[in-house]
């Protein structure tokens, strides 16, 4: 257990604080084990078993694994989604942030913000098999739908590295806006969208030519980005304005602005595109936006202020939220919007991605549903 808090400067210019003090409240059940907590009401929690969690969600993500980067521990936690147990903790470079898993589930790519490298993790052996130099302060990562190309936002060099996952080599470097922190790829694979936190914009990259072909307007400090399955709208989390911008990709204009709360960060869409899930650090909750009406239709409290829900990954059966301040991963049932489990992880959980043999979904800038949509990025 750490006796002092750890800090690290973020590309946006803030200092983020790991708060390991919250972890001392969780008794250790065994080496590597995590205490599961079930939310009974807003006023309290009760312990429950993995079986109870599976029952509560109706159908757990059988065969899936959840991958979470622990930014200040320099590790990746690997979690069995059906049992909610940590099955491995893998060293993963310095300052791991965004993470994305290939569609076949064989590789996880991790952005090392302090090492200026991307690490490739073999999901079978749980070992790093390659490290690739990229730009300064890499944070967000996203894969093309076929998994052949990885896009990496470099917040310290104002560009995006394009990496061939077959060779693990950078094939292009694309200049974008100031302090890019998050990236997502359209479901047809034709466009990558990059949130530029320092220039209040979203860059569009043509994935065939690997060139920026224009920008979309956003609010101040856009730090998260996701695109609907039909490619018609981009959802952008604007940290400073506490709002989510909904942008038409056809007109290039903001069609709606959705207030969500102070400290908005990660945004991810459900596999069917009907809901957007937004992590809101200030109050410690997740907002649910109906993408048809562009209105908030639900709020899930994941913890008190200081929990800092950060990035989100979504499957048909679960919503996974990294809680940077609490050092935990929260699991939410998307049907009932109830918290079904809280798992103790490492120091400052950041990015999150979910994978099974044959499909992957990730989020986390800093990282998506069978297409890895992003991720938010700090």
Automatic annotation (TrEMBL):
InterPro entries named in the record: Host-pathogen_enzymatic-act (IPR051200), Lactonase_7-beta_prop (IPR019405), N2O_reductase_N (IPR011045), PQQ_b-propeller_rpt (IPR018391), WD40/YVTN_repeat-like_dom_sf (IPR015943), YNCE-like_beta-prop (IPR048433), YVTN_b-propeller_repeat (IPR011964)
Pfam families reported in the protein's UniProt record: Lactonase (PF10282), YNCE (PF21783)
Bias type Low complexity, positions: 355-369
SUPFAM superfamilies: Nitrous oxide reductase, N-terminal domain
Top-level taxon of origin: Bacteria
Boundaries of every YNCE-like beta-propeller domain copy: 61-141
Residues making up the signal peptide according to the UniProt record: 1-46
Keywords: Signal
Annotated spans, Disordered: 355-378
Protein name: YNCE-like beta-propeller domain-containing protein
